[in-house]
Recover the amino acids of this structure.
């Protein structure tokens, strides 16, 4: 069964609170027992790069939140392989349990989710 | 008939966004659908800041949203952590944190993000503005 709530993260992680507030909502909905899937597309993929240091940009360490997703039973972390390629990011170097998918597959999966919230 | 949660996440400066929200809410109600609430999150929490003064010849979209929700019996809620981050502070939080002023509009219910999680569980759809 596919998850009911999709959280789509497409904003760059250091220029606003967007990704942090998206991850907060994901963890909260999961702790209420809701099925949640995370989709990383566009500039949202930057937050997966371990080389990015949130604290040096005056931000809370979101890498810890991302690593904690499995403890909230959030098992579906979908990443757009084209967004990674366009930014020169190697998907194998991210050190997270993620699934790399084509843009077509991402839009197919999103269409299966009755609720999508974008951050 | 479906149940909708309306998530307001764009800033106060995007007046057209709120006009779209009100139009959608009205159409949904006329078509017999339910609306759980208008939930303000991210920059949408700016709508709960009552410390705004506009020149008299500018439309006040914040007040328009409030009266629309009152008129249609739609609850207006704002996420406490997202609001506090942006200087939208209740009387109680101001005194707890030794702040001289508070800014929360009492027409908005100050709630935790868990409230949104519960709305989403009860809703068929969420529409983000």
């Amino acid at each position: 069964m596919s998850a009911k709530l999709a959280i789509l993260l497409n904003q760059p992680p250091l220029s606003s609170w967007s990704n942090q507030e998206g991850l907060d909502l994901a963890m909260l909905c999961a702790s209420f027992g809701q099925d949640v899937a995370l989709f990383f597309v566009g500039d949202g993929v930057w937050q997966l790069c371990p080389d990015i240091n949130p604290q040096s940009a005056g931000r809370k360490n979101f890498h810890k939140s991302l690593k904690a997703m499995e403890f909230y039973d959030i098992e579906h972390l979908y990443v757009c392989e084209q967004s990674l390629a366009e930014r020169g990011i190697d998907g194998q170097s991210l050190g997270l349990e993620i699934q790399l998918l084509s843009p077509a597959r991402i839009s197919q999966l999103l269409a299966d989710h009755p609720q999508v919230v974008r951050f | 008939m479906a149940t909708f949660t309306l998530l307001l996440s764009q800033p106060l400066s995007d007046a057209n966004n709120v006009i779209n929200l009100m139009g959608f809410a009205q159409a949904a109600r006329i078509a017999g659908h339910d609306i759980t609430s208008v939930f303000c999150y991210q920059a949408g929490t700016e709508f709960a800041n009552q410390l705004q003064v506009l020149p008299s010849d500018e439309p006040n979209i914040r007040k328009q949203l409030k009266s629309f929700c009152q008129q249609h019996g739609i609850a207006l809620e704002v996420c406490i952590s997202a609001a506090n981050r942006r200087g939208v502070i209740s009387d109680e939080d101001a005194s707890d944190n030794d702040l001289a002023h508070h800014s929360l509009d009492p027409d908005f219910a100050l709630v935790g993000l868990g409230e949104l999680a519960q709305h989403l569980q009860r809703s068929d759809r969420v529409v983000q503005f």
